[in-house]
């Protein structure tokens, strides 16, 4: 990793450290039957009763908007909507695992609210150079506040 890359990583670590513990809330809208059916089809998930969402649906959807123009994509191909509102300018992001807790099933017609908190950021030296490990918690609830899914995620940022 060159000196310029190290500087970008150090600056990002400082920005992210300032965001540790900050919780962001976002209304994701109402779950549509068509979206749940499409997800189940491509994921090979069985049909579920009463418009129930496949269990991995909420944690798997990276972006809830139609997506940005190609010119606005980040270097790793993701849109800013997919970075959980974190200041990741100049970094490439890669998923490094999830731990899920399922509380109640989500259903078509449910309004879903997501809260996202950066729990920690850690600078680490790996085989291929320096990186940041980010630990993020996303909590999904229905419009009444009933918990649906808690998703603890680890990301590698370079």
From TrEMBL:
InterPro entries: FAS1-like_DH_region, HotDog_dom_sf. Residues 62-85 are annotated as: Disordered. It comes from the Bacteria. Pfam families: FAS1_DH_region. Residues 52-150 form the FAS1-like dehydratase domain. This is Hydroxyacyl-ACP dehydratase HTD2-like protein with hotdog domain. It comes from Jiangella mangrovi.
